[in-house]
Design goal:
The complex is a heterodimer of chains A (220) and B (236).
Chain A lengths: L1 H17 L1 H20 L9 H22 L6 H7 L4 H31 L7 H26 L5 H28 L8 H25 L3
Helix pairs in contact in A: 1-5, 2-3, 2-5, 3-5, 3-6, 3-7, 5-6, 5-8, 6-7, 6-8, 7-8
Chain B lengths: L1 H32 L13 H28 L2 H33 L7 H19 L7 H31 L16 H46 L1
Classes of the chains: A mainly alpha (220), B mainly alpha (236).
Chain lengths: 220, 236
């Protein structure tokens, strides 16, 4: 696990010094959100907020996740990582964790923008909303990190990542939107129970699957 | 290899005739033997092909995931050929299922498409495995791409129960306007059960035969590439 810490630390220091991923991500989210507000009828906008949030998050997130592996291609850094005397699964864990942190920071901004532009009221039980967002974030990062490691090696990588990930993300998107709809309206975690359980299962299955399969994925 | 050698005589000589014969029996039982369904009329006969297509598609995807997992574990090309053949055959049946569904739904439900859980599930599965085929569309088998495709097949099948649960919950909250397909099941006449069993056997045999043909095609293509590589080295 210390190997994973080192890689995570490296990624976070890199991000803190350049702020490339986060600044790009936040601006992209803002632009997608703006495009939605122009496309939506003003009276229905607040009701559409959960859907807008997760579609924005997924599409902007895919770009950011791809980037986490693209930076490793420069100067053959990727081979340096593979030569490290650590379990390959640790690379997956570290990359997934750094995606969770960067995407999580962007998601906080996205929620604030959502409240501002679409007039979403601040929920009575914010903790439930936070938990739903965290579960969605982890599941997305697990699946997207795994497939970004694949797509980054393909020729049509910008095209292939969404093709690979979007169909598999369907259960996450459905459950995250429905759970957000309930918690944004002030519902408790128990009232969104079924959705939250599926989200949590999704997180566990794909975090473990990603960690186990990554070793086979990056043999060279 | 020994399994392959033992299977080959049966699969090459018996399977084609058995599948063809069973398919004629299936056509006879569906169009001549089985009576008209009381409320739906002749349209209901598509059921015998439609349902079996879906079983074959799911079978193909599960075989593909199993073979892919084995390939990731052991790295033997045979398992990869089996996985790829199973996805291709599964996609064929999945596509036929997606086409025959709306043909039945139009007169019975009054619409070509509705977001019923099973239909939603069907279209998501189709997209997952069509991406598998896109990923593998290159002419030569790059070992990297092969591993990536195997990961996709395994993760895709892991996703199936989650998709199933979430689309059920999703539609449970938004009731569909069109009557639920509860009217569909209920094979009242015993002849209908017979027809379903006959078509099931026919589709199982067809599935096995197509799977075998594709597997052999991939095996021979690999052998051809090997010969080509050797020729290239000799010429140099």
């Amino acid at each position: 696990m210390s190997g994973a810490w080192r890689i995570l630390h490296k990624d976070l220091v890199l991000e803190l010094r350049t702020r490339e991923a986060l600044s790009g991500l936040v601006v992209l989210m803002l632009l997608i959100l703006l495009t939605f507000t122009f496309a939506l009828a003003p009276e229905g906008a607040a009701a559409a907020a959960p859907a807008v949030q997760w579609v924005t998050f997924v599409f902007a997130g895919l770009m950011a996740v791809q980037r986490a592996f693209l930076v490793e291609r420069e100067n053959g850094a990727w081979y340096g990582l593979l030569l490290c005397p650590i379990d390959r699964g640790a690379i997956f864990v570290a990359k997934m964790a750094s995606n969770v942190i960067v995407l999580g920071a962007a998601q906080v901004v996205l929620l604030a923008l959502l409240a501002l532009f679409l007039g979403v009221p601040v929920p009575v039980a914010p903790l439930a909303l936070v938990l739903v967002n965290l579960l969605g974030l982890i599941g997305f990062s697990a699946l997207a990190t795994l497939f970004a490691a694949i797509s980054v090696r393909l020729r049509a990588r910008e095209m292939m990542l969404p093709l690979l990930v979007l169909p598999l993300l369907v259960p996450l998107v459905i459950c995250a939107v429905e759970a957000s709809r309930i918690t944004m309206a002030g519902g408790t975690l128990a009232s969104a129970g079924a959705w939250v359980r599926v989200l949590a299962t999704f997180d566990v299955i794909f975090s473990v699957a990603g960690w186990m399969v990554f070793e086979q994925l990056v043999q060279e | 290899m020994s399994v392959h050698r033992r299977l080959a005589p049966f699969a090459d000589r018996v399977l084609p005739w058995a599948a063809t014969g069973a398919m004629f029996a299936a056509l006879w039982s569906v169009f001549l033997y089985v009576p008209n369904e009381r409320t739906m009329g002749p349209v209901q006969r598509i059921f015998y092909f439609h349902v079996n297509c879906w079983w074959a598609a799911y079978l193909g995807f599960f075989v593909a995931a199993g073979a892919s997992g084995w390939y990731l574990w052991r790295g033997r090309s045979e398992h990869d050929w089996l996985a790829r053949a199973a996805v291709e055959v599964g996609m064929l049946f999945c596509t036929i299922g997606l086409v025959t569904g709306p043909i039945w739904a139009r007169p019975i439900w009054g619409t070509w498409w509705t977001w019923d859980p099973r239909l939603t599930m069907a279209v998501i599965l189709w997209t997952i495995f069509s991406v598998y085929l896109v990923l593998r569309s290159s002419v030569r088998d790059d070992p990297e791409i092969t591993r990536y495709a195997a990961v996709l097949a395994v993760v895709g099948v892991l996703d199936i129960p989650l998709i199933m649960i979430s689309v059920r919950l999703w539609r449970g909250i938004h009731p569909s306007v069109i009557s639920a397909p509860a009217s569909k099941g209920g094979l009242e006449d015993p002849r209908m059960v017979v027809a379903l069993l006959v078509t099931m056997v026919a589709f199982a045999l067809l599935f096995a035969w197509l799977l075998w043909l594709r597997y052999e095609g991939l095996r021979l293509r690999d052998a051809l590439h090997r010969v080509e590589d050797q020729m290239g080295e000799v010429a140099r």
